[in-house]
Write a structure and sequence with these properties.
about 200 residues, 12 strands, 2 domains
Amino acid sequence: MSKLVSENDLKSFERKLVWVRVPPRAHFIFIMSINQKPNIHELVVCANIFVKKDGKYLLMKRSHEKKFAPDVIHPIGGKVDADENPFIGAQRELFEEANIKVKNMRLEACVLEIIPHKAMPYNWLIFHFSADYDSGELQPTEEGEFVSLTKEEILTQDLFPSVREVIQNILDPNDGTVFATFEYDKKGKITSKKDEVDMCVV
């Protein structure tokens, strides 16, 4: 049976389920602990796109001058700005680096990397999208060299360790969005996986 709860009554609850009658219907409210401190995460958020064009994937071979992962094949993208979400950030990075636009974006994977770079003591949350090429002409970039590869060719390339773990899922249109967590050693190799790779339904 529902009951009316005053403001003073609410303050007396630290963690309790109550019914609050708000005419003309009752609402179910979950009361959290008062003044509970949030768990604040320090994350570097990245967003990348596997661009599909003419039956192949447009990717980037990272510059050999890169401090981290030089000469590695990787989807085009980068760090998400503080005032944008990963979807918008991925599109912006793609246009800035490659001068092209895409359509039909789909979230293929969300990967949490536990301190992959010891010089930067932060976790990385990475969103991998796929999308169809829409418009624009490729322009040179100091970030690396653009390459066009088939699915089979991608599987033989030198990839980021975390991408290597989920690349089959990313390239399979019948798979849903993949979620995975990886920990690294000082040499940048994956030492453990947090649980199994999880996947949303298509």
